């Protein structure tokens, strides 16, 4: 019996403005995001690519989602949205990938508009491109997965969450506070671990402000780092946003768990 797997993905790609300087004239060169994979589908990879001034479409900027498939017999249906929020740009796609290496994208703007401050493609000398959606993969052999989120040290995580007086770090989101333990964040996120070890301002002041996620999403993600029983099962949409948080802060343990959840077979 064949099944369809629903594979969610989310990318947040920050590009320094100076990387666009070499694209003042048309070229076949492009900028590429990191390449990501799916733990349960070997050989399937995805990334974003931007052509700021492609020689096939001179004077135009195009953005693509690129896929590499495991073999030339596989067909993957995709549903995704790509956004540059600061510039109020977005596009949605429902597209079937059937070549081993191929991309799907749309024109973003004229090349000259990229550098127009009024268009707001760059904020603080940086462009942020986001993409999220899911792929539908048909397979003949798949083990049915059950949602099971790994816990941080079992009951220890529950006990730590309840100990407000021992929390030594504060996350500010939407003018609200989430008090946490540095040891928990360090154990689950290499990004936070490096922050604490580097002597950065946030480490010295024992606080950080997060602006690109809502309070609900950050709180949900942090609670998962302690114990999944602390979380009311979020909606599919919020799970996608929590997955983006796990991706940004490299919380691998829970990224895998969320991928397993989304890969429940669809008959």
From TrEMBL:
It comes from the Eukaryota. InterPro entries: BTB/POZ_dom, SKP1/BTB/POZ_sf, TRAF-like. PROSITE patterns: BTB (PS50097). It holds the Pfam family BTB. Residues 167-234 form the BTB domain. This is BTB domain-containing protein. It comes from Panagrolaimus davidi.
């Amino acid at each position: 019996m064949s099944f369809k797997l629903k594979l969610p993905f989310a990318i947040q790609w920050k590009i320094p403005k100076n990387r666009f300087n070499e694209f003042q004239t048309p070229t076949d060169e492009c900028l590429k995001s990191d390449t990501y994979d799916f733990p349960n589908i070997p050989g399937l990879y995805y990334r974003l690519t931007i052509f700021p001034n492609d020689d096939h479409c001179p004077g135009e900027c195009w953005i693509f989602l690129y896929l590499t498939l495991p073999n030339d017999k596989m067909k993957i249906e995709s549903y995704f949205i790509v956004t540059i929020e600061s510039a109020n740009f977005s596009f949605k796609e429902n597209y079937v990938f059937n070549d081993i290496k191929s991309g799907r994208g749309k024109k973003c703007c004229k090349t000259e508009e990229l550098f127009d401050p009024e268009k707001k493609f760059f904020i603080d000398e940086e462009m942020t491109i986001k993409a999220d959606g899911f792929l539908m993969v048909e397979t003949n052999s798949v083990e049915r997965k059950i949602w099971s989120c790994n816990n941080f040290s079992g009951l220890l995580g529950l006990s730590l969450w309840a100990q407000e007086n021992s929390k030594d770090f504060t996350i500010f989101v939407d003018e609200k506070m989430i008090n946490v333990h540095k040891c928990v964040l360090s154990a689950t996120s290499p990004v936070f671990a490096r922050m604490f070890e580097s002597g950065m301002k946030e480490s010295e002041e024992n606080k950080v402000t997060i602006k690109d996620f809502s309070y609900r999403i950050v709180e949900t993600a942090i609670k998962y780092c302690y114990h999944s029983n602390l979380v009311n099962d979020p909606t599919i949409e919020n799970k996608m946003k929590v997955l983006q948080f796990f991706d940004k802060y490299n919380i691998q343990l829970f990224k895998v768990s969320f991928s397993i959840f989304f890969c429940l077979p669809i008959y």
